Amino acid sequence: RQRKNEYIRSKQDLFLEVAKTFYDILLFKQDIANIEETRTLFQERINELNEREQIGRSRASEVVNAVSRLKNLEGDLAQSRGGLQIARVIMEYLTGVPVDVSRVKEQDLENIIQDDPNDYIKAAETRPDVIAAKNEMNVAWNAIVVAQSGLWPTLGFVTDHYELREGFQSPITWDFTLQMDVPLFRGFENVGLIKEAIAKETTVLEIEEI
Questions:
Q1: What is the pLDDT of residues 87-96, one digit of tens each?
Q2: Does pTM top 0.85 for this prediction?
Q3: CB 176 within 8 A of CB 160
Q4: Cβ burial 139-170 (10 Å sphere, 16+ → b, else e)
């Protein structure tokens, strides 16, 4: 059950990663569009300043300042384009299909039901990773019980049935033997196994609390 719920949670995490990458692509596309528009405006501004400088109505420092800001925009543009390509590669890795970023568009979100955030908190107990964690805790506790059982004696029952016996036992067609094994010389080994099981359970509890 633990492994099954971990598998379900892994699929949910994959969905979240795909959704995050999807919106990363949208974000970088919007950034690129905004920067390109701003760059066009700066280029027009630089051309205007060059004309004004030639007639003495603008200082050379203004042109240099505008060119410097334009270069910064081009750096930001290159960075956003690189981020877009990285997001595209990640999306292709997660989905296993080629991705055309020009076709990635945001869907209409107007009809999505707005749930109460408290509902998600209540539903947390049914999340597959939470259920898997509970199963892991149960496994750790049962491991302690199994280790403690090594301190107790074991009883065995063996029976035999005979079709034919010779001698004075010929009238006896069956018998049984009761065996008891007392772990007198395995105490240190069993105590070590118990401590190991307790340590594993403590580790699981600490991880779940984190």
A1: 999 999 988 8
A2: no
A3: yes
A4: ebeebbeebeeeeeeeeeeeeeeeeeeeeeee
